[in-house]
Model the fold of this input.
Amino acid sequence: MKQLNRETANLPASRPVKVLQFGEGNFLRGFVDWIIDILNEQTDFNGNVEIVQPLSQGIVHMLNEQDGLYHVLLEGLQGGKPTRESRLISCVSGALNPYDDYQAYLQRGENPDLQFIISNTTEAGIAFDEADRNMDTLPNSFPGKLTALLYHRFKHFNGAADKGLAMIPCELIEKNGENLKKTVLQFAAHWNLPSEFTAWINNSNSFCNTLVDRIVPGYPRDTIKEIQEELGYEDKLVVKAEPFHLWVIEAPEAVRAAFPTEKAGLQVLFAPDLTPYRTRKVRILNGAHTTLVPVAYLHGLRTVRESVEDEKVGKFLREAIFEEIIPTLDLSKEELEQFANDVIERFQNPYIRHELLSIALNSVSKYKVRVLPSVLEYHKRKGQLPERLLHSLAALILFYKGEWNGEQIPLNDTPEVLSFFQNAWEKEAEQEVVKTVLANEDFWGTDLTKIDGFTEKVTEQLQQLQNTAVQAK
Done:
């Protein structure tokens, strides 16, 4: 079997490097670099990516051994039919470890073709680290490293306005671009950098808020030999991902023009405000997961796919999404329903085994963020309570009892939450259990018993669930 490199693949690395990417993990390679590869193929973007390893340990040596080449394998459903396709990613021209050569890293800022900084350094990555005291040595934090690079670029090009960059972070935090800019400016002050540099950051660079969405399971360890035989290369960096992808970016028109994803038919949206899209994702995608888990688990189901395909539970989930969640959102009905249908198809992906218990982690806080806003907005708009979303809440309370049909439920939450439910379930009457849970403002941010009919409705649903269990015996 052939080694994978540019000679064996007959692919010269001839494009200018336009993107410096902090992070070599599965998500960026299976999402961002996949998108850029398509941009190169279908538009005049003509730009390569150079990867910076954000931590001292990583896989840049493996990337360089393969000359930046690797395959993305898409597996999932499209139009209800299983689909499987591979793409050889050729847009990564190389990778470097700044811990090995700090000066070589800084010199990347001298590249006149550089236009974009893209990152995914985990949610904790965009944070100020006071221990990064100066730029004499490589800063430990990602924003510190970025500030050092930007300052080097600022000095090299004498503060030229047209040499500013567009920062497009993919970390899963709200307003990631704004937070990154704020942290870079913190470092500029911390290091007593000149005011001219701060003005250049503010006036000549863009920090874009983003929303990313694609499930990327990553390296297919269990089937890699078969996949390599199929590809014809000994690719050690194969990335598996689902076909669905969405990238929403808040950016100036100049960034949109320089990153012409619309010409390639990609699901990359440039929006003046991504808040409606974030709300849509949290309420429909994440909210559907959280709504589903306790209901499906108490019905004896154990994976997302089998739950969605179950006649009773699948119907429950669809009705919860289309009849109780979508009516609380402000994007067009057509757009919301298309996204919801995509979500259901993603849940049915036969190539991904998504355990319900893996989603059940910290379900109380997830319900508060992902589902409760839909409940409250539905009540506000309709003047009544949503049956299915409250059924899920009742199932959640029952789930946190920790036992169902004589079997222990492996709960995964903070000791405080687990202790609270243990004490609550010591009460004899179901209504008292429900009242105790709903009144916990630490859980919900408000006392839900004060909403007319809320306690009664959840108690009724909980009693129905318990009766069902008794009949099943």
In short: The domain at 275-472 is CATH 1.10.1040.10 (N-(1-d-carboxylethyl)-l-norvaline Dehydrogenase; domain 2).
